[in-house]
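Dear colleague,

Following up on Tuesday's group meeting, I ran the structure prediction for the two-component complex that the binding team flagged. I've pasted the input sequences exactly as they went in, so you can double-check that nothing got truncated or mislabelled along the way. The structure tokens for the whole assembly follow below. Feel free to forward this to whoever is handling the docking comparison.

Inputs:
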Amino acid sequence: MSDAFSLECPLPLQQYPHVLLAHGGGGRLMQQLIDTFTTAFANAELHRRHDGAVLTLADARLAFTTDAFVVHPLFFPGGDIGKLAVFGTVNDLAMCGARALYLSVSFILEEGLPMETLWRVVQSMQAAAQEAHVQIVTGDTKVVDRGKGDGLFVSTSGIGIIEHNQHFGPEAVRPGDAILLSGDIGRHGIAIMAVREGLAFETEIASDCALLSTPVLQLLEAGIEVHCLRDLTRGGLAAALIEIAQTAKLCFQLEETAIPVRPEVQSACELLGLDPLYVANEGRFVAFVPETEAARALDVLRKVPVSAGACLIGHVTTDDPNGLVTLHTAIGTQRILDLLSGEQLPRIC
Amino acid sequence: MKFIDEYRNREAALRYAQRIAKITTRPWTIMEVCGGQTHAIVRFGIDELLPPGLTLVHGPGCPVCVTPVELIDKALAIASLPGVIFCSFGDMLRVPGSRGDLFSVKAQGADVRIVYSPLDAVRLAQQYPDREVVFFAVGFETTAPANALAVLEAHRRGLKNFSMLVAHVLVPPAMEAILQSPNNRVQGFLAAGHVCTVMGYREYEPIAKKYRVPIVVTGFEPLDLLQGLYMCIRQLEAGRFEVENQYTRSVRRQGNLTAQQHIREVFEVVPRKWRGIGELPQSGLGLRAPYRAYDAEQKFGVAPLAAQEASECIAGEVLQGAKKPTACPAFGTRCTPEHPLGAPMVSSEGACAAYYRYRRFTPSYVSGL
């Protein structure tokens, strides 16, 4: 053996000349991609970086949002692509404090998709729309060659009406605010991974896919002062909070032990080397409210089944240009939560 | 969660931290060998609980980090061949070779798939008899038994379209390389619990004796790491240099004999090049002669590729524990997880990535104990 080490390292990959799957993973690469869009389409409403746009037309305040759904498999424990597409858009409107009224739907269908599959998705969307009290009032259909789509892609847009005078979003968050979470996290991501990869766990994990408009509208009807709402999707709780912290230029302090994770989700995460804080959800949201309103808000949320497990997970602390989210760990130390590059990757060992 | 929460108990962790502070009379430098331990230390902020003179340095035990760039380039070349299904564990996909990463070749049309077990790749080979299925066999002694089983299973099923790109490395030669380095400052080791679950720890006993360093086989939870550190410091303070086992719930001195037998059946010890360290004799595993038909390097005849280096990257010094990631001038600026200059910035087990995720900023209100 030689005394000196031959140090070596690869040439850097300065930037990706192609779109990677990681660009859709809810991490930093996706943020970069979104930045290019917001730069190109620049306007004040887009720069608020909220789940939907809030627009004033004549005397009415409306919320407007759009979302695309590309889940595989199309049907999974706890939901399917149709239910996701309706609830996802209605939930984004709810995060603007709006009652959803009308949706549009676009289908991109792959040649060869069984009609029966399409019909099941459509029926599921109809049932979801009924539950959400929205009407699907317009739509579009395209068919692509076999092999050029993954069976079925759905895109939905929605319009909702804002029937209160509160203005919320990341810019309304204040130091001292309480951060509330509507229930346990990580079930959707693990459920999808389990069916997609054929991972069998002792108990079946079902997606948390659910409608969030009821708890939000109840909060508003109870007259609770709300500063920001955000539903948790790709990138999980961590990505949602980091994005708000960075937009608001504030620090958040979370308590790890206050964040509920079901044992089966925790086990799956431990096994795969994943962090549940970064795993996707489809029926959970965070609410920023003044500390003085926290107890009352939790009372309201806990009376609604979908948010029965609502809890206080932390506070907004101070102004900070970096917008940091830190976690007070179970063993009493501090850890910074940062955006991942793309999706979480299962570890080697 | 049972068997996890007990090892993340706050009161017990603080008690151990106090015991460590009580017995530590001098500054010591201890290396945790395994990237999983590095990740846990930074994720749980364990270093915040330690007395100021105690320095933890992060070892070479991240399979993603030490796989040489030439081999990544070979993986990219094989994955790009028509008809190949290239299977890998998830975190290898972002490791840069000299001309891109597996994510990039996937985006350009290569069939690259993340698998959770090498046996998934064997199943794919059976499912697609007209395709060539290649598994990227990366890792230390921990992943070797499952990879050996995959070869044996492919052999049993008579699969001709399955092969492995083998990049297996062994821990003890890397520890010796670090101890022999003129700029070594490691005084004690936390050995990798999972590697020792497979291999046992008899092979560490001569190393402890020859280099007069204590080695404590240690687990991956906060209490494991604190107890491992306590045991290591207790030896250092007493001038002892023995191999001790903290991870008794998983590790036996002789290891898992069945797993070792599978490894010996399929693999033999070969010299290997380590990214950031260089070639070490007898430091890796390669396929034995009867199983050469499963060697993807031979099967696809990929030529050795000369790889260029990023001069700024100090991965070698980081992997040997000579420098902390934050000592690198490129850290967090020209080198980030999106645009890594070196492999330690890629894997979640890599020391640089762990520092980037958890330590990039030091908020003023964050304090230790």
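Chain A touches chain B through 58 residues (CB under 8 Å).

Cheers,
M.
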